[in-house]
Amino acid sequence: MFNLLVMANGWSGRRDELALGRVYVDAALGPQWKTGDLPNFDLMRRLPAVFSPENSRFEPDQVARVGEITSTRLQGSNVVVEYRYDPDIPPIPLDDLMALAPALGIQVPRKGFGPFEHSHWAIKDADLFKVLLTEWRRPIRQPTVFQLATPQRVRPDLLSAMMPFAGFGPVWDAIQRAATANGMDSGRADNRWDHPAIIQDVVALIDEAAIVICDCTGKNANVFYEMGIAHSYGKEVIIITQNAADIPFDIAHLRHIRYLANDQGIAQLEVDLTARIRTLRT
Known about the structure:
With 282 residues, the chain is α/β, with parallel strands linked by helices. It has helices at residues 41-44, 94-99, 128-135, 169-181, 198-208, 221-232, 263-281; strands at residues 2-7, 15-19, 23-24, 34-35, 38-39, 48-53, 63-75, 78-85, 92-93, 120-124, 155-162, 185-188, 209-215, 236-241, 257-258.
């Protein structure tokens, strides 16, 4: 979750005032976000924040900033907000932020005033940093071994599997059932042929997926390579294996799901994957 704060004429960079009536708390978020008739500012300050100017056609180079709210106090009918920007996150062009709106849980109507056309403060139920890491990148990614789509398009309902093919049919079936149970599609490189080179299909599948499952069983070099790509893209990676000794030393500290290759083990793998995917999706 994060705070979205939009201000006419932009933000000063340290302290600003906003009308208390423009602080919107959706009841669907739960009663904890209100203290009596007022927003629960103590709880809201714990969330990261995006400080955006109102969209103006007269200012072509508008940018938003990511930061944190350090204090709030009521002053008449206004709330005074003190804040600081995160120096490690560069300014986000407003056009880019608006393009990210669906991934950030920001509803932009086709007609009328949208969230970037009026000053307000609202809580959005999305993982701000995950979206910025996976869907907004500066500079543009330009690897030399393969090509990446520009701009990146991540499918929130796509799960991909990086695994050995031969002899792993029951494992793949369990992965597909776990994905379906969570409302997700599942993909594997051997059932995709969009490019002449298979590595391009593999990379595209990783790039588009929201969750990547990597089976390290047998110390498969291809899987290790693909898992490294998934980690570098900031994907949610679920590591599975039949043997803990097959997990490379560099990632041995990461949690994994261990399963047995018999009927009971595959059934338990499906249960474990279903639960883990559900956790990542909520």
